[in-house]
Each structure stands twice: as C-alpha cells, then as structure tokens.
Amino acid sequence: MNDIQVGLIGFGNIGAGVVRLLQDNADVIRSKVGTGIVLKRIADLDITSDRGVVVDPGLLTTSVDDIFNDPEISVVIELIGGYEPAKTFVLKAIEKGKHIVTANKALLALHGSEIYAAAVRKGVEVQFEASVGGGIPVLTAIKSNLAANYFSSVFGIMNGTCNYILTRMTQEGAAFSDVLKVAQELGYAEPDPTFDVEGVDTAHKLAVLISLCFGTNIDFSDIHTEGITNISGMDVKYAAEFGYRIKLLAIGKLVDGKIEARVHPTMIPLDSPLADIHGVFNAIRLTGDFVGPVMFSGRGAGQNPTASAIVGDLIGLSRSMRVGAGRRMSPLGFMDEAIVTIPVKPMADVFSKYMLRFSALDKPGVLGGIAGALGLYGISIESMVQTSHDVADSTPVAIVIMTHEAREGSIQEALSEIDQLDIICEKTSFIRIEENLE
Q1: Domain shared by 160 and 86, yes or no
Q2: Do 112 and 51 sit in the same domain of this protein?
Q3: Using CB atoms within 10 A as the burial measure, which of 123, 157, 278, 283 is most buried?
Q4: Contact 307, 20 (CB under 8 A)
C-alpha cells in the first residue's frame, strides 16, 4: 500500500512536535502500521519562523485550500485551536472526504455534535485523543478497551496550570497571585491565563469526557464552571486540618437518569489517589460497572505528550485505511442512533458536603446566629473550628464549619441570608467536598 498522505493545519509548538515525531520515529511507525505516514502539506499563516525542525520548504503553504484540494491527502490534522476558523476548516475537510485528527477540546465542546454529524454523513472519522489529558490515552480506553462498561462517573484533574498553582499553595503556603506569576514565567500558564484559572479549559475537557462516557451531546453552557482565583491560603490551611486537599475537579456523574456536570474547586480526602496528583500532572478517574474504578495519570499538556497522542490517532486511522476498513468507529464510540439526550441536573439540585468559612465579629451569639440560619434551610453542622483573640470585638475572626450533605440551592440561600447579618464582616467562602470518587 502507498504511504498515508497527511495535511497539517497549524504549525505552532504542537505542530512542530508532530513533525518531529513523524520524522524521528518514522521507522517504528512503519513497522507498526505496515506503511509510512507522510506529511504532504503544512499550512500556517507564518511559514518563515524557525520551529526547531527541518522541513522541506516545498511542503509549506499559507493556503489551507492546498490541503483541501489535494486528493492524495486523506487525513487532516487541525492544530490551530479555538472556535474559528478551526470549525470552518474541519467541516470543509470533512466535506472533502478527509478524516480528521484534532487536539481542539474547545471546538469539540461547543461544536462537536455538528462536526460528528458531518463526519457521519461523509463516512469519515474524527479522532481527538489529544484533546483531553495530552498524552494520557483515556479517550481511546473509553471507546475501546473499556467499551463494555456502563460508566457511572468520571472525575478529572485536567488543567496543569491550576494543579501547579494549588500544589504550590498547599506545599509552601504561597499566595495564588505569586504562584501564578511563577507559572507564567515557567511557561505553565499563558500570558492571559483566564481559560485555565477560571475553569473553562477543564470544562471543555469535561464536555468531551461526558459525551464519551454517557453517549450524549452535552450543551457546554449546562456545565457549572468555577475557577480557583478565590482560593486563599486560609482555605488550603483549613482543608488540610479537616483531612482534605483542594483540587480543581471536573465532575461528571450519571445519577437517576440525570447528569451532574460541574467544574469547581473541590476538597478531596487525603487518602484519595486524586489527592496525590501534584504539579502539572493530570489524572482522570472513571468508574465502570464491571471494571470498577480506573485512573489514568500523566503529563496533560506539552509538545511531546500531545504530539504522541496525535500521532497515535494517525496510526489508528492508517491501520484502518490499510485494510480498507474506512470509517471503523463513530466519534463518541456509540452507534450514531444510540446517542441520546440526557438532562443535566441543575446545580441548585446537586447535593454535597461543604466547608463554610465565615469572617465574623468575635462576640457572644455569633455562632448561634450562623447555626440558626443554617438550620432554617435544613443544613446541619458536622464539625467546626473557631479562632479567637483578646483584641477588640471589631476585629473579625474565622469560623469554619463542615456541613453534612446539603442541597446546593439551600446552601446558597442560607449564605445569602447570613451574609446580610451585621455580625458578618465579608462574603462567606465555601468549598464543596467530594468524598465518594467512584
């Protein structure tokens, strides 16, 4: 069989990693596929900058049409990221009958259903292992090795920037702003880190995971999303005192026919495997009815791990094409007619335990006022820590309360009322607790 001809759109850091991997490991790839995988064209607006890899100038073009209109190119790799023009390029490549490999979780989270439907119509595949977890092979495992299971939950620590920041805050007592600056200097965080620290990047990945685990196309706007910008050193300290570690956790659960889909800072028990994922590492924990809990971990980003996942998808497609299999697997791993709409549970109806941190005046009756207000909304207290001092009553003290499981809507209503009390000095901080990670 002739070599598999590939077109690459986007010659940035990840694109350069893909080129290097295809060059350096060409022999091992050929030995595993039975044919070569060759870059026929590379399209980018900038084709003059040095990427650190040697490329035949004849392969470079500033026009994506040179890829779309080349009948020898059977696979297109999209690595420009974002929503547009990535969406337009992917749909055009599909219309031309070309298979797609992408790392673009944002595109799939918002426009995946449209892209998958287009691929079904044209009989081509869309592969996207690199969109979640970098080089961690979790999506392929869900669609293939673990495909016999009904999944009940998926949890993930899937943003290296946030995990690095929270790790430093936990281990060193450093402030969020100080660690973020270091993360930017080290290249772990973008100059504008909003998508990372506000949880949007993690929510994009959760949307992809929920679709694969539960066989549904989730509306991205239904995923409750919070970041880590409001996490303080006090929160980290008190969490540790109660036996927890704070992580930015993606949570997908299928409960009583509804999906819980949420991303937010979460207190995880210290004895949980997810609590031991430190620094820039990622981890995804799945629970299937037969396999039980399974966890995948590794570097969730970076040039080489991401390139590894992209070329892995290329190899899978090439093997299918080599034997004439054509479209071997639907994008979500389910038969197209089996994809169903599953309602997403409103965040107000989610039940969880909570750590509530109040800043209150140090005077008699304060605790009674807080406990009374919580009780009115059916929220019971499991344990409490209260600081005190010998200075004037006008100086605030911290009161930290662990609740039993409570409804989110009730917590929000209670805190809204408590924060209006004249004994409360600032808006109450709360962090959700997730103890059952299966």
Answers
A1: no
A2: yes
A3: 157
A4: yes
pLDDT digits 0-9 by tens, 160-185:
999 999 999 999 998 999 999 998 88
Is residue 306 within 8 A of residue 19, CB to CB? The reply is no
Per DSSP bridges, beta strands 281-288 and 151-157 are antiparallel
For residues 228 and 232, give the distance between their C-alpha atoms in angstroms, rounded to a whole number.
9
Q: Known catalytic residue: 205?
A: yes
Structure confidence by residue, pLDDT tens digits, 286-326: 999 999 999 999 988 889 999 999 999 999 999 988 877 66
Q: Mapped to the 3 state alphabet, what secondary structure does the chain carry? A: CCCEEEEEECCCHHHHHHHHHHHHCHHHHHHHHCCCEEEEEEECCCCCCCCCCCCCHHHEECCCHHHHCCCCEEEEEECCCCCCCHHHHHHHHHHCCCEEEECCHHHHHHHHHHHHHHHHHHCCCEECHHHCCCCCCHHHHHHHHCCCCCEEEEEEECCHHHHHHHHHHHHHCCCHHHHHHHHHHCCCCCCCCHHHHCCHHHHHHHHHHHHHHHCCCCCHHHCEECCCCCCCHHHHHHHHHCCEEEEEEEEEEEECCEEEEEEEEEEEECCCHHHHCCCCEEEEEEEECCCEEEEEEEECCCHHHHHHHHHHHHHHHHHHHHCCCCCCCCCCCCCHHHCCCCCECCHHHCEEEEEEEEEEECCCCHHHHHHHHHHHCCCCEEEEEECCCCCCCCCEEEEEEEECCEEHHHHHHHHHHHCCCCCECCCCEEEEECCCCC
- 40, 98, 143, 205: the active-site residue: 205
Q: Work out the number of other CB atoms within 10 angstroms of the CB of residue 407.
A: 16
Query: Do 127 and 167 share a domain, yes or no?
Result: no
Whether 341 is covered by a domain: the verdict is no
**The model's pTM:** 0.94
Q: Has residue 244 got a pLDDT over 80?
A: yes
Domain that holds residue 376: 347-433
pLDDT digits (tens, 9 = 90+) for 392-404: 556 788 899 999 9
Number of structural domains the chain divides into: 3
pLDDT digit string (tens) for 55-74?
999 999 999 999 999 999 99
Q: Which of 298, 266, 267 is nearest to 283 (CA)?
A: 298
Q: In this structure, what CATH number is given to the domain that contains residue 69?
A: 3.40.50.720
Let me know whether 76 and 146 are in one domain: no
Residue type, 268: I
CATH classification of the domain holding 185: 3.30.360.10
- Residue 119: what pLDDT? 94
Q: Are residues 321 and 423 in the same domain?
A: no
